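User: Quick sanity check before I run a bigger batch. Here is a single chain. Can you write out its predicted 3D structure?
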Amino acid sequence: MNIPNPEPRRLWRSCPVCGTERGEPYLEKGALRMVRCSRCGMLFANPVEQQYVAGTFYEDQAAPFYLSPAKLQSDYSPVRFQRELRLFRRFCGSGDVLDVGCSTGAFLHQLQAQFPGNYRVLGIDVAGAALDYAASQGIPVVRGDAEAPGADMFLTHDFGASRFDAITFWAVLEHLAEPGKFVSRAAALLRPGGHCFFLVPNMKSLAVRWLGRRYRYVMPEHVNYFDHRTLRRLLAPNLEVVQVKATHFNPVVFWQDWRRGQRDLVPPSERAQLLQRTSAWKQSQSALLYPLRLGYRLTEWLLAAMHLADNLVLVARRRDP
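Assistant: Done. Predicted structure follows.
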């Protein structure tokens, strides 16, 4: 007998890393209900609203954020992907690149603009408006159709004989209800010797340890919360990890979220404006900012060395038979 889902607008999940159905309540924030897997310790949202599972949130509600002038100016700033590009270039000096969750195409734009002729690029995303903007900047994109709708598009799209030297997931895995399927699909699309690149928020960061639920990136649209151990375990069946590191630190976010107290969510417009200001500070040549830059770089280096920086970046290659 089929039993109706008591909450049809929500998906009840097993652990996205080990598949265990048991989980202990861990944290609540707005619509977010986070649990800890009783077997592997993975933190994840359960249940998850269907708008995040299907990707309709990013098509509808998130579009004004991704397409706001402040966000676009920040994303297309030459300093925006400096860390990611340095890491990427160490493992992939040329070739075919697929950016999963490419949004407005800013990473692929920087890759082509800074290293012209080295890469053939392709972007894929669930948000049509963001893809329209990427295409307007000359980025080739994959669009959904009736056979590959919404968040499942990457899993079901027919890439034909195309294979890639690099596949990037910059700030994507935390949004996916079934991240293991995306990792498996990416591994199948890599050429021998190819690499996958992942960036996710670090649940062992100083910001999370200090701020807890006040941290702005603890949010309903983030449905997975990784540390280096659970991220490695997610990738293990399909990919061999070759490098993992902690990176990034934003002291302004830390300060603002600490002062915010118990307010639940940071408005998207405020997040976009901060990104814009941060990019401007990085580009400024003012000598007055030199001591601040030096102090910032030292702080970020120390946090990274202790695995307490804001994000985890992991590089992995296909695990061949």
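Residues 55-318 form a domain with the Rossmann fold fold (CATH 3.40.50.150).

User: Great, the batch can go ahead then.
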